[in-house]
Amino acid sequence: MCNLKVFEIEKICYSYPDGTKALDELSFSVSEGDVLGIAGANGSGKSTLLMLMMGCLTPLKGRIAYLGKSFDRDTVRSMRKETGLLFQDPDDQLFLPTVWEDVAFGPRNLGLSEKEVASRVEGALHDTGIEELSKKAPWKLSGGEKTLAALAGLFAMKPKTLLLDEPTSGLDPRSRCRLISIIGKTEMTAVIATHDLDMVLDVCKRVIIMKNGKIESDGEVPGVLSDREYMRSCGLELPLSFAGRSS
Q1: Do 53 and 189 contact (CB within 8 A), yes or no?
Q2: What is the pLDDT of residue 79?
């Protein structure tokens, strides 16, 4: 495993406009090739953390670095060219008449030839298993299909890193399994914010548990997730595969 630090988060703090503290002195790093789960109950700060990592929000204190360079305008611009963010609500990312056009939107904005755009779109649709949806209107898709279409849009940009915000939220069991399979096969660095601990168990080797804007633990997945009382104290439940075991 390469030790190149893709993201470094150092003692960042963030509060919402009404003064509510969202993140308090968070520090961790993401190395190249990591598939890191960020788990926590609703309101623990997971989504806010991803927005900070994407440069959509600015921490009140602390430092975020990408490939060793502290965030500034140029660093954030470079990071966004190599990082894809999947929003919790895929409707925020789908806005064109067909799935094909939505997936093509990003590559076209890179100034690529139509031949290269088509190649990327076809590859992304294949990788997410939604070739048959290419001519459909996004608003006619199911929740799971919308999530896969939004993910295909990211894949078409050929990112090095994925930031995924609650990717399995609201999905039916079949769509959820399909999404987990796709994420599990990717070789990209990924940070997955979720309260779906079964997905974390399936695709992540490391997990950070957040509670009230702070990091409660950071370690290997089985060891962290198998403690029933600890999980409950963080507003979470054991993954189903652990549920029958004693704590």
Answers
A1: no
A2: 98
* CA nearest neighbour of 125 among 98, 149, 101: 149
The token pair that represents 109 in the structure block: 């904005």
Please determine, for residue 213, whether its predicted confidence score (pLDDT) is greater than 60.
yes
CATH of segment(s) 5-237? 3.40.50.300
DSSP labels, the chain: ----EEEEEEEEEEE-TTS-EEEEEEEEEEETT-EEEEE--TTSSHHHHHHHHTTSS--SEEEEEETTEE--HHHHHHHHHHEEEE-SSGGGT--SSSHHHHHHHHHHHTT--HHHHHHHHHHHHHHHT-GGGTTS-GGGS-HHHHHHHHHHHHHTT--SEEEEESTTTT--HHHHHHHHHHHHH--SEEEEEES-HHHHHHH-SEEEEEETTEEEEEEEHHHHHT-HHHHHHTT----GGGTTS--
Q: What's the whole-model pTM score?
A: 0.92
